[in-house]
Design a protein that fits this description.
It comes from Terrabacter aerolatus. Keywords: 2Fe-2S, FAD, Flavoprotein, Iron, Iron-sulfur, Metal-binding, Oxidoreductase. This is Oxidoreductase. By secondary structure, this protein is an alpha/beta fold. The protein folds into 4 domains: about 35 residues, no CATH class; about 90 residues, Beta Barrel (Elongation Factor Tu (Ef-tu), domain 3), CATH 2.40.30.10; about 120 residues, Rossmann fold (3-Layer(aba) Sandwich), CATH 3.40.50.80; about 80 residues, Roll (Ubiquitin-like (UB roll)). The protein is built from 8 helices and 17 strands. The strands form 3 sheets. A 6-stranded antiparallel β-sheet has the order 4-3-6-1-2-5. Strands 12, 13, 14, 15, 16 and 17 form a 6-stranded mixed β-sheet that branches.
Length: about 350
């Protein structure tokens, strides 16, 4: 260890003002000790708007559990942008994300990513994972909510002859359904997987109705006996939560695990809003009381730190210089000078100055 430190000091002298890692990056772009990175190894178009991006992570990556997500950073016009994406690859394989072209960063990733591109990474996170012990499962998904569940299915079904999984997936059309053909092939190959697609915009179709048990009992009659996992749009998950709470048996509501891609906001939690001043960026913008500080800053060109964008990872913290903010999840108004504010779930409650 002493010899290593001595060699590093010599290397630092020879490479000043650069660090030795800067020159290693020219040879191996994954070698940075300061930021975990991955190189894109394969890009697969899933639908007209969705793309799966496979990547090989550098040293420091922790293997993911099926269903987890990770923060992914990408350089766009010279600015590093971070977003959180579910990992769709099976456990034991190099990770992959499946991205739908909705929003600035997701559209850039889905449309422009090429083999050999470098992604900036954070380690996998999340507790939307398979149960510890084998049991019958119901996977209830809509739209891109299938991505973490696909990791679960790819991991579990081919490896466990005792697997018993029913997947109910809602999509607008067959052409927009993620992994459509692969899922049907898996269901044909492995008797432990049953796939039920529900297309909401094809002839004679309608939205999957979770306001009562009728549709669900048609698709999966024994749904009360299964451990259920649900992921999709907010209204879809809210309806599932209510159904399990009110129409299951005494234990059913504890058998539903939810993964949300957006924070649960308190209805009517917006206040008066106010003038936002971004001190270091020298920018100001009027923002409504229901607009997250993160979105208001991005809309006026401020480079805002971000991660999950739903109040979990705390990557969006920015110091408050002055003013008060309202937590959009609880309605609480708070703010002390120097307090670190989660900008993705707080809005202005009057004039606000942020140290960014």
């Amino acid at each position: 260890m002493t010899q290593f430190r001595a060699l590093r000091r010599v290397a630092s002298i020879l490479t000043t003002p650069r660090e030795p890692e800067d020159f290693l990056n020219l040879v191996n772009p994954l070698s940075s000790a300061r930021q975990l990175r991955g190189v894109v190894t394969k890009v697969v178009r899933e639908t007209a708007d969705s793309t799966t991006i496979h990547f090989r992570p550098g040293r420091g990556w922790n293997p993911h559990a099926a269903g987890q997500w990770a923060r992914i950073g990408v350089e766009i016009d010279g600015v590093r942008q971070w977003r959180s994406y579910s990992l769709s690859a099976a456990v034991g394989h190099d990770p992959a994300i499946t991205v739908t072209a909705i929003g600035y960063v997701s559209t850039a990733l889905a449309r422009d990513t090429k083999v050999g591109d470098i992604l900036f990474l954070d380690t996998p996170q999340g507790d939307f994972v398979l149960p510890e012990h084998p049991r019958p499962l119901l996977m209830l998904t809509a739209g891109s909510g299938l991505t973490p569940v696909m990791s679960m299915i790819r991991t579990l079904v081919p490896r466990r002859p005792d697997a018993d999984v029913v997947l109910v997936h809602s999509a607008r059309t067959r052409d927009e359904a993620l992994f459509h053909d692969e899922l049907l092939e898996l269901a044909d190959q492995f008797p432990g997987l049953t796939v039920r697609h529900w297309f909401t915009r094809e002839e004679g179709a309608r939205r999957l109705d979770l306001s009562d048990v009728t549709d669900l009992e048609t698709l999966c009659p024994d749904w009360r006996e299964r451990a259920a996992y649900a992921c999709g749009p907010t209204d879809f998950l809210d309806a599932a939560t209510e159904l399990w709470l009110h129409d299951g048996d005494d234990a059913t509501h504890t058998n539903l695990t939810i993964e949300r891609f957006a924070p649960v906001l308190l209805e009517g939690s917006g206040g008066e809003g106010g003038l936002l001043t971004f001190e270091k960026s020298d920018k100001e913008v009027e923002a409504g009381g229901d607009v997250p500080l993160l979105e208001a800053g991005e809309d006026c060109g401020v480079v805002m730190p971000s991660g999950c964008r739903m109040g979990i990872c705390r990557s969006c913290l920015v110091p408050l210089v002055a003013g008060r903010v309202r937590d959009l999840r609880t309605g609480e108004v708070h703010g002390d000078e120097g307090e670190l504010i989660q900008t993705c779930v707080n809005a202005a409650a009057g004039p606000v100055h942020l140290d960014i």
